[in-house]
Amino acid sequence: MPAHGPEKHPTATELDARYSSALNPRPGAADATATDWAEALRQLETAEIFWASTVRADGRLHVTPVIAAWHDGALYFSTGPGEQKAKNLAHDGHCALTTTTGPNSLTQGLDLVIEGTARQVADPAVLEEVITAYETKYGPHMTSSEGTFHGMADAFRTGDVVVFALPPSTAYGFGRDNGVYTHTRWTF
Predict the structure, then answer these.
(1) Would the pLDDT of 1 be above 80?
(2) What are the distances in angstroms from CA 115 to CA 54, 69, 131, 146?
(3) Each residue's pLDDT tens digit, 45-75
(4) What is the CATH number of the domain that holds 179?
(5) How are strands ordered across the β-sheet holding 108-117?
(6) Is 77 within a domain?
(7) Which of 32, 41, 138, 154 is most buried when burial is the number of CB atoms within 10 A of its CB?
(8) 5, 72 Cβ separation under 8 angstroms
(9) Which helix (H) or strand (E) holds 121?
(10) pTM of the full predicted structure?
(11) Number of domains in the chain
(12) Which residues have C-beta within 8 Å of that of residue 153, sequence separation ≥ 6?
C-alpha cells in the first residue's frame, strides 16, 4: 500500500497569490508566504475532528465528521461497513478530509484540505500501527472504558469497522493571521 512506507513530502509548494494577501494593500500583506508543509503536518497531527467528503454512486456529495490520525504519510479514518462513506468509497475512492485549526475565525487559523484516493486497510500489522496512532492522539477517548471511542481498537482488529488510508495527492492550506491570508497548495 503506498501509504505505508517512507513519509511522503510535497514535490511542490506554491502560494496562490490570486487568493492570498500578497495583492492586498494592508501593511505586511505583501509579505505573505506559502505555509510550510511542516506546519501543516503539525496541525494535521493535532486536529481532532475532520470532515470526510465522498461521492455517492449517483454523483451527489456526502460529507460527515470523522476522527483521523496521521501516520506513515497518510490520514487514517474509519467507518462502519454499512455506512454511506464505506459504500461511496467502495464505488469511488476519491475523497477529501478537511479540518479547521485555531479558533475558526476570519482572522486566525489554518484550514487544511487533503485530497487523494482512499484505500481500505486490512493488513493486521498496519492496523496495529494505526491503533497506536489513534491511541496516542486521542488518549483516554480510546483507551479508557469511559472513553467516547472505547472499543474502537477492537473494532479495527475484528473488522467491525472499515479503516481507510488517505495518502495525499494534493493538499491545500488556507491560512488567516490578523488580516493576512494565504492559499497554499502542496502537490505530492
Answers:
(1) no
(2) 10, 15, 22, 34
(3) 999 999 999 999 999 999 999 999 999 999 9
(4) 2.30.110.10
(5) 12-15, 180-187, 168-177, 108-117, 94-101, 50-55, 61-66
(6) yes
(7) 32
(8) yes
(9) strand 119-121
(10) 0.89
(11) 1
(12) 131, 134, 135, 142
* Residue 152 resides in a domain: no
| 158-172 exposure pattern, b = at least 16 Cβ within 10 A, e = fewer | eeebbbbbbbbeebb
**pLDDT tens profile 111-167:** 999 999 999 999 999 999 999 999 999 998 888 888 898 899 999 999 999 999 999
d(CA 113, CA 121): 21
If pLDDT is split at 50, 70 and 90, which confidence band does 2 have?
very low
DSSP 38-97: HHHHHHHHH---EEEEEE-TTS-EEEEEE-EEEETTEEEEEE-TTSHHHHHHHH--EEEE
The x, y and z cell numbers of residue 3, run together, are: 501509504
